[in-house]
Amino acid sequence: MVNNLGFKVTLRRPLATFSLIGANIAFYLYGIAVMGGAQWQLTFGFIPALALTEPWRWITSAFVHDTGFILHIGLNMLMLWVFGRQVEGGLGLWRFLTIYGTAVIAAGVAIMLLAPAVSLHVGASGGVFGVIVAYILMSRKVKANVNALMIQAGAWLVVGVFVAGISWQGHLGGAIGGAVATWIFLTQADRTLKARQ
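RESULT FIELD:
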């Protein structure tokens, strides 16, 4: 059965969303219990000056959160739960993971280009922003009204520029990466549907 986005999706449970949330929580507990929060962040967080010589940071930084502020991981996982299930259900597991992964890498690219070389960036919010933008694009494709969500996401981006400790560069890069990947998938779906008509 093809859904209203033009994708054949048979997924019953959002396995990728559950897995990402589980991995984030497990790595968070590891960081606190085994390494100590500060060392964990410095070892696995994204630091532009080290990103090319220590390439694991491009991925691991998306699973590292501020251990002194529980709302950091809490809010990111809540947003991933709310929007990840919708995007994964609408586009399928592998497209969802591609969007999330693209957003995480794009967040790193934006940080490399826009942030100070010795700054530390941690958190899943780059990937989460990519998923939120994917949800917005999916919703607009089916003519759903997401104006309020677009305003909230835009406000979140703007606030990050003015509030210390928020990686607005990562948010911006994640949003752009998620938008590009989602646009490609939705464009492919349109072409497939037209070819079938």
